[in-house]
Amino acid sequence: MKNLFLICFYLLLCTLCSYAQKPVEITDTVPQHIFTFKEIEVFEDTQSKFSFEEVKSQRFNGNFKASLTSTPQTKELNKTYWVRIRVKTNTQARKPFVLEFFDQTIDHITAYVPQPNGDYKVENLGDANSFEKRLIHHKNFEIPLQNEGNQERTYYFRISSSQIADIIIVLRTTEWFISYALDEYFYFGIFYGMILVFSFYNLIMYIAIKQKQYLFYVLYNLSVGFFEMSSDGIAYQYLWPHAPAWNQLAYAFALCATSIFALLFTRELLYVKAKAPKLNQLIIAVITLRLVFFVYCYLFDQTLFSYKFIEAIPLSVAFFTGIYIFKNGYQPARFFVLGYSFLFLGFTLKFLIMLGIGWLNFGAISYYSLSFCFVLEMIFLSFAIGDKVRILKLKKDKAQQKMIRQMAVNVKLKDSLNQELETKVEERTREVYHKSLIIESKNQALEEANALLQQQAEEISRMNVLLEHDNEELQTSVEKVTRDRVMSTDVDFEEFSRIYPDKESCYEFLSQLKWSKGYHCKKCNNDHFFNGHILYSRRCSKCSYEESVTTYTIFHNTRIPINKAFYMIFLIYSSKGKISSHKLSELLSIRQSTCWTFGSRIKKVMEERKKTLSKTGKNGWSQLVIE
């Protein structure tokens, strides 16, 4: 029984040893080593409540689990991850070594570096810190190793990030690190140099041709370069090393600009507005939604910026638009589709790696796969622009050849027309010559007729003068007859209105009647006046008293229209006051009570001026007006 217990204990110990973290030994023969799987152990501290002293204690050994993927990730945003690795020092290794974190987007890395005396030295890394505080001024995060003695040392790292980051830890010799860094910066120079060259060339094309597709392509390329620089740490190293806060958001601005200018470039290059109106509306809608999403993230929840897979929507729309336009026969779209196929492939690869599919991670190739795809896409999009220009040039050449052929036809037609015109001009000249002789003879006859007509015109002028004089006399007679006709008792209101058709004519007659002997101010007896504000009123030039045309007349304060009031006075006067108020109401279309009131007033004045009225003629009714 005791032997059986010892065997079981031995097997259990072997099992635990097989699952224990495997240390990585420093050796000169291996210039670099990437920590993967069991070489990395991870503990997720979601509440960030454990200190380093607690984490490194023996009771926490069971909390650290070996990584199930070749590249662990900080999938919980802004949460704390504790990572530990074991490195076995080797005094026979003469080369200096460094530990490097490959992903430069990690915000905070607190490294606990073991010392020969058993203590730990704390180093703060991450892109949330100023670039000047880094141990080595490189876009990645490096920690120099102390290779003293032959023993295993455990390195602890406290990691948190506001976006999903890869925990890629690499052990490198300093010699290899320098060589690799120089090569990497060289390739970065080529990549960004290509972007600048392509952008500068297309900017010149835009200035020369003024086609918006070149401008959008320039802005798209610059946005891609801006995003890549923000993602790989080059921008933080060279453009804004003292702005860590901006460094946390720069990639989001660049990514939004990349999507928007990619869609605008697609819309302009492929003539989407004309060739696919519905897709054009979809592109505008996606651009609007992308901007709204960006503004919301920036103002309310900046952690949403880490969900970069949202860019699959504008990318898919642009990709589908290119396929649709190409299927409809537009040839430049083939290069566009090919370029976006590489970009779509690179984006899908990065997205799947972000989801944790580890077998797709091939190290640096996978890490920079999207950059390679951007380069290929940039090249093929340039081919698409060139193909579009080539097709436009072919169309232009065909149009020019057609114009040249049409011009040749026009020249032949012009020559034939000129010949016909010359023939007709000669014939017409001969006809004109013969007709000119006839016209000359007729002109002489016309001159004689004109002389006779001149004499007749003078006679007609004399007759017109006599007729005008007769007309004036006739018009005066007609007016007199008309006025006499109106003054008769049997005239109706329509005929009466011909003399006093409106309020203005009544006021004019009333003003002539009222001031027939001159103006005298009722207040100060001044004889000079100005025209008042009311129609035909007069304002004293001395005291400014304004007297209306109805003041001191029988029409003052009456509500009856002035022309009907005139007619009522005329009817009462003509009938000698015998016409009834009912008859007046019928003739004037005014209420009987109103006619009775105003008629009584008129009859009273007639009775008062009976002697005066007996001496007047037909126009005696006007003597009733002035009070």
Descriptive overview:
- This protein has 18 helices and 14 strands.
- With 627 residues, the protein is α+β, with helices and mostly antiparallel strands.
- Among the domains are: 21-180, Immunoglobulin-like (Sandwich), CATH 2.60.40.2380; 211-393, no CATH class; 493-514 and 553-624, no CATH class.
- The strands form 3 sheets. Strands 1, 3, 4, 5, 7, 8 and 10 form a 7-stranded mixed sheet that branches. Strands 2-11-6-9 form a 4-stranded antiparallel sheet.
- Helix 3 (174-209) packs parallel to helix 12, helix 15 (562-574) crosses helix 17 and helix 16 (581-588) crosses helix 17 (592-608).
- The radius of gyration is 54 Å and the shape is elongated.
Question: How large is the share of residues in beta strands?
Answer: 5-15%
Q: Count up the helices.
A: 18
Rounded to an integer in angstroms, the radius of gyration calculated over CA atoms is 54 Å
Please tell me the overall pLDDT: 81
Q: Give the fraction of residues assigned to helices.
A: 55-70%
Low-confidence stretches: 1-19, 484-489
Sum up the overall morphology in one term: elongated
**Main sheet, how many strands, which sense, barrel?**
7 strands, mixed
Distance between the termini: 152 Å
